[in-house]
Amino acid sequence: MGNTNLNISIIRLKMRRLIIFIFLIFCSKFSFSQSKKDAITPKAQYVWIDKLGEGRQVYAYFRNEFELKDIPEKANIQLYAFSNYSLWVNGKFVNYGPIRSYQQHPYFDSVDISSYLKKGKNVIAVKILNFGMQTFQLPFGTAGFIAWGNIKCGIKNVSFDTPGSWVCRKAEGYNKFSPRFSFAQGPIENFDARLEPDEWQSDHILPKKWQTPILLNNQQYFGTLSARTIPLLTNTEVDSKSVVSRLNLSTKDQIYNWNTQTDDRTSSTGQGFGVLNYTYLFSPVDQDLTLGFSWGKFWLNGLRIKTVNQPEKAFRSNAKVHLNKGWNQLFAREEIIWNNLDGMLAIPSDAGIQLSVNKKLNNPMKIALSGPLTKSEMKITGDDNSCPDKPELLPIKWNYLSGNEPFVNPAKEIAWLDVEKVYVNRDQISNIVIPANKNQALIFDLGGIQLGRIFIDVNAPTGTTFDLTWSEDLKDSSVTLFKRLEVNAVSRFISHSGKQHFETFRPFGLRYLQVTVRNHSQPVTLLKAGVYKQIYPFQKKGSFECSDTLMNAIWEMGWRTIQMCSEDSYIDTPFRERGHYAGDFFPEFATTLATSGDPRLAKQTVRLFNDVYANKYKNFEPVSNEEFPLINFIVASWYIRQFSDKKFAEELYPIFSYYFNEWHNRRCVDGFYHQKNVFIEWTNIDKNSDLTSFQALMYASFDQMSTLCNMLGKKIEADKFKGFSEEIKQFIQTKCWDIKSGNFIDGMKDGTVLSSRYPGSSAFPSIWKIPTPDQEKSIQNWFKESLINIGPSINRQQTSTPYGGFYALASLYQQENVAVAEQFIRKNWGKMVLEVNDLTWEDFNRDNQATMSHAWSSSPTYFLSTQALGVDLGFPGSLSPDTIYIRPQSEILTWAKGTVPHPKGMVTVDWKINGNKLLLNYSAPKGVSVIVKPRGRLAGFNLQINQK
Hints:
By secondary structure, this protein is α+β, with helices and mostly antiparallel strands.
């Protein structure tokens, strides 16, 4: 009996171990990282300039010097750094990296540097930035650097392993208190070359300033390293094409400034914080003056000042005030925006005004500042609309400033300067001389919106200030600064003497570059200005041309846009955010398929999103846009179908099987899948409601999860998810349909149907064929009005945006409602071509805060290739990628020709109408089945294929 009990215990122990083993395997699969055979654990160690890797906007330099008797045929260095690095060899830029990733799944770069090496002394130099904050590119994290590799030179072995022979030092020239570029990006670059002890990448440095790298305390902070999955980004020099204008800069005002910040490590808003400040103005006489004020509420001698906005000077409001002879009290309450406050006060220089915090003349301390203060701390000083009699006696801490400190945000300073146009030779883009002591700005045109590292080459005396500001468009004679609140598009460089090269560490999006030159006692020569274009190396394989020249320009505009919105992941815009959004990802992948056909960036972007949503998937935690994880899966499943990537399907299955089962388990008794926070698009739809569009995305997710399970041979799971999709399909058909209006409702809120009607609420179900035939017919009739007349072109008041247009066009083309689709494209995208002819805009207008470079708006390029030219690429619908379908449709075109990079190979189509015939010629890869079936109007012609 004892042996029996012992055997049972052993069996139970083995079962427990087996269960734990299975659980660990499941967890490893559920880690949201692909199974990578090239995942490694190098012998090198993570290092930094200290053992913790903390701090806001910390730049560091690392160097490795070695001698070579001969140049090797190959010399690979592997490296990874957080947040980002730039690699230089013998003074030449080699690479910017690594690709975006979360610390649990870092990707290292392997770079062959043999072509940069030379006989004798060689220097590998790495510049690393740790943001020390959350951005839309990377999460908050600890800095770290690791490198490895070696060069065999005869019997000698040169090792790149860290710490090894590396040395490092902190960059001393950067102002770590610089404000963010925007709510989405890290701090602006404010660099004083005079503070750097030596040239960090040169042959000769000051050894005493350098140290041996320090091992990070937590060597397990970063997960297992894996090889980079996408090609290196481009590094193409784009020089300025012309000089738009040359400006003299001056001001008749004395401008005082003050600055404060809140903790922006994990939050980019700073909401709820404020600042108080006061000063006393001494006036020699009673006088009326016009003062300039920045953001905030202001009181003069206890009376609230009424300010008038000055649109020609961003953030400036003017007010006519009366100053009494003697001392006058000025008090302000200001709100912090995006963790930063730049306060400014402009007083006419000839008015004889002195400022003081204590009513004493010639006092160097002119501004009293308190903050950042919480809302409760602000209330101690009175309500938001009150002014204390004696602010200096308030029970808060005051800091005293001169008001003349260097601006931490030079863009604000530049925005308030007066400009005067002077003669400019538009064709002279290099060797431009700026006279001594003459504050001037030159505005360069790069010929189109670019994404890259901005550079200038100059010859200047010590202390010359170069402020680089940029924008996508112009306002009068200058770049458009602050088109959107607190987008600080500026970098400052202060020179040492002689010829110098300055370039931004990070890439930025711009077309117009303004170089402002000040504080120079001798002439300055601006040798050159431009951008090192740093984008994903998409190759243009697709093409499109048709009888409508406007449509041709729209197709090309989409191709240019997808290039500028693709780097180490797909991004929304190169200008404002450079953020990765699953919503943008859908139309961006579509445009990629039609133009390049390269799916590698899409696959990597899916993996990046899986890391972004890791906690959401595992713990069903809320995210800021709850439809985005669904869209990420829908795009991933599209990629898997098109490229038959079964291995990737196996990687994604455990993640999404669990996630979608949880969604089904949480379906509410009223039949809706309740979402707490969605984006959908820039419309005024009530996003706190249970939206029909979200229910349609749930249907598509379940339906495509069923397809993925079938691909993996999981029949029971496939049937289960198919059942889920059929349930929600019937629910949408019955509970979300409005018989009276003949379209789907926008949604429900507290049991009440929303009164609004947006086209997207019907387009989403239509794409995935949820409506009944009668419902679909009614929807398409309604679209003839609702999509042609989308409302006034002002401040996102329209019922559809270019992003929503992606879904609208998918529905229209799928249902052969081609006339509406083509009119919709020509009317709304046509003006982008006619007005600017560069990239697609964020909105259908450009007179508000929207950017002029958004690839979520590039979808007409995809539809012209797949619908007008007719080569199907798997959306809308899900035709087999093993067969090439050529199904052109158009109501306005008489001919079209082009190429499409189909997953099976390049497909060329050339069709034209000739009398009652449709002459269609095509070429396709041998051995692949091709089906030609024109639709709509084109189906009515006698078809002649390849002259047969």
